[in-house]
């Protein structure tokens, strides 16, 4: 983040910290010297004006009800200043204009109470867009992964950030960088997928986009959260340090070193017995000393309190606060509890004042850089109407949805002809329930549903209505039958669905998830599952419709992958839509009609069996299928990276620029791709690396580069990946990251299991230690189409 532009002159008598013409560090140091211990501690706290329990059911954060009693008043919380205002817009149904005035009121109270007039940082959730009433709801993060389009993610994040900044929000609690390791985990929908490079490439662009708009991005959850035992939320993490470094931490390092992110949020789950909220090796040694992070570390909601109440590594709230601050935590969210006694802890010798100053300096630096201490600071807009769901936003949301939908299978039934006289049965719970398009951190599912509201808060067209609109000028008639709900055990509606299918020429069966929190949904935070069968009685519905003999197009609207092995071979086509956002209905309809040529690719595999988890493509030989070793075959039905469209592509001539390179050299890998169909389309070219012999067990293959390219019929592109030797690095036996000499295999193709091109190169020389250097983390790509060169949406 950079300081806003400064005026040419400053009024006489202006305190140093309010003078934007002075360097940021000078302003911060001057203000820090003026603060009392209590005022310093106040800058590290927060306050959440939560809804009355009689107005809203459940909670928006884990164990929220446990912190409902003996809460401090807002007036008491700001007596010595305040670090953050928690979710002034995203806690209850409130219009944008009213939200601006609400935030202004809170800020005036904070500034008016503060002896030195220091405003608070206002933070909000923004994983699927700004989480507030009436704001655009973009596809869930798992859909970003399916789009394989970093620049599109950056554009979306920039738009989200502009909307947030326009109403006075300074920091967004996104993106999520957790790498999927177990599909049963409820928060799979919030992740970008199962490959660390894909996750890192897309979330780094999200960080850039949000911060380009003037809003600080927050990485979460640092680190290991998604690798919990059995995919259970908050469960212990038992992975080894090598997997942590070479898989889990990769996206975080990319977003810190390349994206220059401004904030990091800790993970709830302990890693080998150490909670991240109290881990100095993670929050200070690695994050700051090794990676050079300069922003603030903010706690996940009540994570500092959990050190005492859940992890049992602290004797009382003060001890929890002291441990966390000393480890490298800077701000306690969503409310001040454990950090409330930091001043007393310093006076009593339980905490060094230098550690308190360290955190306060980081918070004040952000406030100065955000312009909060400049003369004339206004937490809101200049007035007038505030449109958080503009036409431009909706067009972008639709493009994001369209590029994220994955066509898994098609026997030729798709695209549907628009001028045919026929009847199509649209069956299933997702067909008429647009809430299924939205993630658990959408305002609709995260907040509005808790207030007894059955609506969505924004305009959303259902799949059945979108199909009706899509084919309005043709002879197609649609008949809708829900069949079953998402979780209700009642199957009485299956008979109606069967009748509709029997009388139809085609059945579009829509099944999937309805996101919620802590068990109120089939997907989302705290909505973990025991296996990967479709939720509720939806599998019975699919089987019943398939039994009619009517051709079936199966449409999945989900936040996680579900097992399709029981009925995939009997479906005419299978479409996967990962929670596609408010324009999801139109995007699905467009794919079915052929108006949209699907270009999404799987960011997670689709399992064949309901059990046998966890299991992702990023695994060594014995983690996959090995005949004679186990009777279980964990190979997916559809692999990571898979997806087809209405265009076809050929891959030719993987060419390497060198047969061998030094341990700090680069090899260029060129792939020629041709559109062999009569329709323009997009292809995701994927490059995978294998390390046949290494000093530790390595994955069979790993994604090291990708590019999404658009080609006209018959057009070819030469895609050149610039692979540095650092991209072969791994954590060796001595727990140092190294580039090890030897032979490596590169393969290119349209998915992790469809790699028609292969070549090899050798890294020569001695082992190179890259532990203490800022190694190359990305694989740049150049794309040459026809006779002209252009920049691809590539990483």
Automatic annotation (TrEMBL):
The keyword Iron-sulfur does not apply. It comes from the Bacteria. PROSITE patterns: GLYCOSYL_HYDROL_F3. Residues 1-23 are annotated as: Disordered. InterPro entries: Cellulose_deg_GH3, Fn3-like, GH, Glyco_hydro_3_AS, Glyco_hydro_3_C, Glyco_hydro_3_C_sf, Glyco_hydro_3_N, Glyco_hydro_3_N_sf. The keyword NADP does not apply. Residues 683-752 form the Fibronectin type III-like domain. Belongs to the glycosyl hydrolase 3 family. This is Glycoside hydrolase family 3 N-terminal domain-containing protein. It comes from Kocuria oceani.
